[in-house]
Amino acid sequence: MRALLSKSNNQKSALTSTAMLTVIRYSMGLRHVALGFVLAFTNLPAVVFAQSSCPGIHVEIPNIKNSTGTIACALFESPAGFPNEFLNSATNIIMIKIRDAQARCSFLDVPPGTYALAVIHDENRDGKLNTNFLGVPTEGYGFSSGAEAAMSAPSFEAASFSYDGQNLDLTIRLNY
User: Fold this and answer.
1) Domain locations in the chain?
2) Cβ contacts of residue 117 below 8 Å, gap of 6+?
3) What would the pLDDT profile of 36-77 be if each residue is shown by its tens digit?
4) pLDDT higher for 3 or 48?
5) 93-115 burial string, b = 16+ CB within 10 Å, else e?
6) Using CA atoms, how far apart are residues 132 and 75, in angstroms rounded to an integer?
7) Mean pLDDT score, 152-162
8) CA-CA distance, 131 to 19, in Å (whole number)?
9) Which of 45, 97, 162, 163 falls between 20 and 30 A from 156, CA-CA?
10) Structure pTM?
11) CB 122 within 8 A of CB 174
12) Whole-angstrom distance, CA of residue 11 vs CA of residue 56
């Protein structure tokens, strides 16, 4: 009888141990799942709301006259060729389609320095700013730092800005 009771107690003990082990595994599993959710949602805002992981110069061009053609953004690091010779002299050039009368050019991984931007609305996609017989532009154009063209294009110095290597947001409005 004692052997039978001992066997019964051993079975109960084994059942209790198995049940306890299952409860512990289950609660540990829940802890790991909960920890995973906490870690995932802690990093979610950084992933979802980050605009760009690469610092750069981001140029918004709002209120474009129409969506015909492209926008050409030319980044210059020196006065050489600014702004007329952008195909030969610009450090970086971005050609982008116009969407809903606006465009955005982003120059990434640009080293710190002094730069100037020239933007044209190349309506006929010929790669240049077209002018009439008097030399007055017939397509939209704009420059950084609010530089304006009077009797000729502004100088590099008038359009220049300092860039520190971080994210820089600029807005350039075109003149027609």
Assistant:
1) 1-50, 56-171
2) 57, 59, 73, 74, 75, 76, 143, 144, 159, 170, 172
3) 444 444 444 433 344 456 799 999 999 999 999 999 999 999
4) 3
5) bbeeebeeeebebbbeebeeeeb
6) 25
7) 97
8) 86
9) 97
10) 0.68
11) no
12) 70
